[in-house]
Amino acid sequence: MSETLRLARDLIAKPSITPEDAGCQTIIADRLARLGFELEWLCFGDVTNLWARRGTTDPLLCLAGHTDVVPTGHEDDWTHPPFTPTEDDGWLYGRGSADMKSALAAMLVACEEFLDANPDHPGSLAFLITSDEEGVAVEGTRAVVEVLEKRGEQIDLCLIGEPSCSELLGDTIRVGRRGSLSGELTVLGKQGHVAYADLARNPLHELAPALTELSRTRWDEGNEAFPPTGFQATNIQAGTGAMNVIPGSCQVRFNLRYSTEQTMTGLQDKVENVLSRHDLDYQIQWRDVGRPFLTQPGILTEAIRKAVVEEL
User: Fold this and answer.
1) Is residue 275 helix, strand or coil?
2) CA dist., res. 282 & res. 284, Å (int)
3) What residues have CB less than 8 Å from 297, skipping those under 6 apart?
4) 108: closest CA among 14, 33, 13, 20?
5) CB-count burial class (<10 Å; 0-12, 13-18, 19+) for 57
6) Residue 288 to residues 48, 203, 272, Cα–Cα distance (Å)
7) Catalytic site positions
8) What is the per-residue burial (b if ≥16 Cβ within 10 Å, else e) of 137-167?
9) Claim: this prediction has a pTM higher than 0.85
10) Tens digit of pLDDT for each residue in 270-310?
């Protein structure tokens, strides 16, 4: 068994459902400490962050990733238990095997092999590992970067091990990301009995046409680097649970993944215009998850392209 596979299995076995780290970062930290990295734990609330650096000179290459995984859902629906790493027909199964514990293992083992061959390399290496990527993503990487900025610590190059391939390993190198804008919408109505619907106002019925319009809107055509902007409703809640009571309000959570053709404020205005045009009595809370960005070609993109060609 390869060392990368062994480490990936150890990490997958940890039930690190966001924002819980479940000891994954300790496994990583122990190995980094043996390589001469200085470790710094930056914890905020329930979130565990590890900043580990080796060297003090420029440039600083940061290998970044996360140990948290999304919830499993009903474990009985899994072919293989989510936190029991299982090899089946050449594939490794388990929550985090793709996103992104295998990548963390690969980056760490690659770092060990590199330092063994190049102990006096120029520049510095760092790992930024968080347990808050799959959740609200406020107390994780964003919070750590704010700490680094306040003390003048500059990351020059950053490589993230998130899965990015479309069909074959290495066929896609992502050099940017779409923006992510989430909203929590409450539509107000008037509760009542279904037998006397004329005395009530059903917020679900009032919301439906607006939600349909938002889901069918063609926001833009995207561009060379990004697909078109998309709207997705992710959760709807309403009512008391009774079959004969019209709800007094309903709550909808949604997300917009947007290209550089849009701005956050522009999308907010467009969504709120649709809601107002449908004459909804509503309240909305916005959450800026991340703005879109695109990295221009340079030394890092060329190094990665060369590595893909040589290794694959």
Assistant:
1) helix
2) 7
3) 175
4) 33
5) exposed
6) 22, 26, 16
7) 68, 133
8) bebbbebbbeebeeeeeebeebebbeeeeee
9) no
10) 999 999 999 999 999 999 988 999 988 999 999 999 999 99
